Amino acid sequence: xxxxxxxxxxxxxxxxxxxxxxxxxxxxxxxxxxxxxxxxxxxxxxxxxxxxxxxxxxxxxxxxxxxxxxxxxxxxxxxxxxxxxxxxxxxxxxxxxxxxxxxxxxxxxxxxxxxxxxxxxxxxxxxxxxxxxxxxxxxxxxxxxxxxxxxxxxxxxxxxxxxxxxxxxxxxxxxxxxxxxxxxxxxxxxxxxxxxxxxxxxxxxxxxxxxxxxxxxxxxxxxxxxxxxx
Amino acid sequence: xxxxxxxxxxxxxxxxxxxxxxxxxxxxxxxxxxxxxxxxxxxxxxxxxxxxxxxxxxxxxxxxxxxxxxxxxxxxxxxxxxxxxxxxxxxxxxxxxxxxxxxxxxxxxxxxxxxxxxxxxxxxxxxxxxxxxxxxxxxxxxxxxxxxxxxxxxxxxxxxxxxxxxxxxxxxxxxxxxxxxxx
Lengths: 230, 183
Ligand SMILES: Cc1cc2nc3c(=O)[nH]c(=O)nc-3n(C[C@H](O)[C@H](O)[C@H](O)COP(=O)(O)O)c2cc1C
Prior knowledge:
The complex is a heterodimer of chains A (230) and B (183).
Chain A: E1 7-12, H1 20-34, E2 38-43, H2 44-48, H3 54-61, E3 66-72, H4 80-92, E4 101-108, H5 117-129, E5 133-141, H6 143-146, H7 155-173, H8 180-186, H9 195-212, H10 217-220
Parallel strand pairs in A: 1-2, 1-3, 3-4, 4-5
Helix pairs in contact in A: 1-7, 7-8
Chain B: E1 3-7, H1 14-26, E2 30-34, H2 63-70, E3 75-81, H3 89-95, E4 102-109, E5 112-117, E6 123-130, H4 137-152, E7 155-162, H5 167-180
Parallel strand pairs in B: 1-2, 1-3, 3-6, 6-7
Antiparallel strand pairs in B: 4-5
Helix pairs in contact in B: 1-5
The structure holds flavin mononucleotide (FMN).
Flavin mononucleotide sits between chains A (14, 16, 19-21, 72-76, 107-110, 115, 143-144, 148) and B (43, 45, 96, 99, 151).
């Protein structure tokens, strides 16, 4: 069966407009376009900063069939500007998004996709509260290591993520829930036994970065707000 | 024990009233921040608070006022309506900036990769007000609060109320939680 060409709007939830969330959104956009669908990306931070008018957003959102939030994890859930944005949508566009499809892709610093569970659940509640069809969420642990590197420059890792997104899009454009095998493919399985070695490596990197900026470990660990000056 | 209250409610409600009564009765020392009246800029993930300006955001807003209360304090109490099974944006504007409570260094504890705390042990009491929420939202809210506590290596408790709950019940439960939650 020939599927209908869809319109897909990807919402970048990171205040950093060219980093990992954007790289993921860009890959999804390209994949969707290759399949003949229309896709565009907007940056939530531009609405938050009032560089773009929230009122004008309605014209951008209403013609879309599918909305996809691509976002980093901040302190175990959605970043503040993203919650602000979803609250505004819930308040200003009640009833108007009914029947559209919604999905989310979240990524975080630590290499553990379980950390993204509360965030993805919140996206599901948002979709349901607005009577949209929730297609499900995908999580990627270790987005901080990608740090905005285009997936095509990441070798095997990039190919794996891209192929997982392609599978996810097959479901998404057909209005189906994202298959659990996509999450399996995206999950980086680091045995917990390696966490100590990983922590030591990350600490070494961070201290080296600090030294290169003339900052000692004592400076790095300052109890800044217990000092009199601040 | 000093208590720092981060109140993310827009309008006055039963939880605030109950807390006010309780604090008056017990004479506990506390700092009260009504977040809707505070200028807190969104975290831009610029990374400056890690190395360039350790433990301090380089953008000027009202966070230092909150941080001066939290750093020596032992209990943080967060009040928020339950939004999409999580926190409201009013609360999240502060929480995103509380990552300076941890160091940019890593440690492993009970099988979790975590940041080390900058100011030692603290506790977190999260109080949510539910309204017309969907089934499952409360559970997600509790999970989120537990994750925050783990992330910061704090002990914690979560309470959920509805606006139909009687004032005495809210007061009693908050009082009990304040006694139970210890760093
Ligand atoms: C304020 C703040 C809070 C964060 N909290 C978490 C967290 O709780 N868990 C985690 O694994 N990563 C956390 N991160 C890391 C980001 O999720 C991660 O670096 C992500 O890849 C950033 O996405 P971006 O490149 O699209 O901005 C946090 C980052 C910031 C700035």
